[in-house]
User: Which sequence fits this backbone?
């Protein structure tokens, strides 16, 4: 995507969820004409835009984080936060006294499983992991320019404008992270909508059981669907809805 004015004439390569697949990412960048200069991938005319979710799941999470962060710090890439980076901040941050919780994102079996590969791969590098957690705070939730916008899951103009007024920019801080633990709060709504998207509640008494065994009463929706008439028109997730 290239804009018409000079400052926007640089092309962007939008790269979705990496999830720890560093070798695949390196191959992709090379196929798109990026090459290593002093150990960091860059392109003469283009800039990569990473749409978050660098961590969790894959075999080389640590390597993926280093690759992406080096590109961002060199200026050959930009990045917005994904829900997995946000979840990691919550999982690794102690809740404040009186909240009734030990951690902001509680250490349930499901949450443990989602972040396990990341923590395992950083087990021998705890200082590095803490450094990346600090770096996550510098990752904006969105990029909003005259001719270009990026967000991990869902662009909600009203929430984003409110967020800019409250935070004075596009990044969260530790206070906002703590506030977002209450899903019904403004902070909770910002993080849920921008990083997870929109959802709908199933009819009374109906549930979806995911392949991972997780049971939910909500499903993610295509917020971009035009003129939808049925749940099937808006469902947007891998686990199927109940047939009825």
Assistant:
């Amino acid at each position: 995507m290239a804009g018409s004015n000079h400052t926007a004439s640089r092309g962007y390569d939008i790269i979705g969820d990496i999830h720890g697949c560093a070798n695949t990412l390196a191959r992709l960048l090379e196929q798109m004409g990026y090459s290593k200069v002093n150990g960091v991938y860059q392109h003469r005319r283009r800039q990569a835009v990473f749409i978050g979710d660098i961590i969790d799941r894959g075999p080389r999470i640590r390597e993926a984080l280093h690759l992406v962060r080096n590109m961002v710090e060199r200026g050959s890439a930009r990045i917005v936060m994904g829900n997995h980076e946000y979840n990691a901040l919550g999982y690794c941050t102690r809740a404040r006294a009186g909240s009734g919780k030990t951690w902001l994102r509680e250490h349930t079996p499901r949450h443990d499983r989602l972040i396990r590969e990341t923590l395992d791969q950083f087990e021998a590098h705890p200082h590095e992991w803490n450094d990346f957690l600090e770096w996550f705070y510098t990752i904006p939730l969105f990029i909003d320019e005259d001719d270009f916008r990026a967000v991990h899951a869902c662009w909600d103009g009203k929430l984003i404008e409110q967020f800019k007024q409250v935070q004075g920019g596009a990044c969260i801080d530790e206070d906002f992270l703590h506030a977002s633990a209450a899903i019904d709060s403004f902070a909770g709504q910002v993080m849920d909508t921008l990083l997870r998207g929109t959802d709908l509640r199933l009819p009374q008494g109906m549930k979806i059981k995911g392949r991972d065994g997780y049971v939910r009463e909500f499903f993610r929706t295509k917020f971009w669907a035009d003129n939808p008439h049925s749940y099937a028109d808006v469902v947007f997730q891998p686990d199927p809805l109940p047939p009825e």
Notes: The longest strand covers residues 11-15. The two ends are 42 Å apart (CA to CA).
